[in-house]
Amino acid sequence: MLGKILKIEFQGSQKVISLKLQSLWREFDNLLMKENESIQVFFTKVSGIVNQIRSYGDTILDKKIVEKTLRSLPPKFDHVVAAIEESKDLAALSLHELIGSLEAHEKRINRSTDHSWSKLFNPSWIRRRKKTNKKENLKSPKTEKVKENLIGGRITTKATITNNNQQGT
Predict the structure, then answer these.
(1) Is the separation of the CB atoms in 102 and 131 below 8 Å?
(2) Does this model's pTM top 0.85?
(3) DSSP run (H or E) holding 157
């Protein structure tokens, strides 16, 4: 008797429970991981919804959660999803094993992305690149057409003009 009273108090009537479950299932079905979201944050959202569904008495198998998680990942994980689907039995794959694998791949993806961005925005690398470009320009000014000028009826490059001026012509 007391259990029924507490259940109705905390969960509501059967009609309310049914409406809440419909809402939770809709939320679960529409859930997608955002491009800038981490696996851990996304898994926390999935777990929260799954726990609420289970608290209202509905059952959801881990297989369904694993499949939903794989479908909900952004395109940067496509190669990871393909590898997992090919190499593992999804029916036997535990949710924690999947999350562990996805987090490991996420770290690899972020490491390679972070490395290229840090190299791009590293001031010492930029200075070295500018010096290299200056050296390359000094070594072969005749091969690059910098600007064309019409001098004495012939087309010459800026490098040719510079060379002629240095030779005293």
Answers:
(1) no
(2) no
(3) strand 154-157
- Please enumerate in sequence order all residues whose Cβ is within 8 A of that of 155, keeping only pairs 6 or more positions apart, or say none: 148, 149
CA nearest to 33, candidates 79, 63, 66, 75: 75
Q: Break the chain down into helix, strand, coil percent, rounded to 5.
A: 70, 5, 25
pLDDT digit string (tens) for 100-151?
Answer: 999 999 999 888 766 555 555 555 555 555 555 555 555 544 444 444 444 5
Separation of alpha carbons 77 and 107, rounded Å: 12
Residue entry with tokens 């930029």? 126
Q: State how far the Cα of 163 lies from the Cα of 56, in Å rounded to an integer.
A: 85
Pick from 5, 4, 50, 58: which is nearest to 27 by CA? 50
Distance CA 7, CA 131 (A): 74
Cα torsion 22, 26, 27, 29 to 10°: value is: 140
Place of tokens 């057409």: 145
Indicate the residue type of 162. T
Read off the tokens for 115: 């490395």
Radius of gyration of the chain (CA): 31
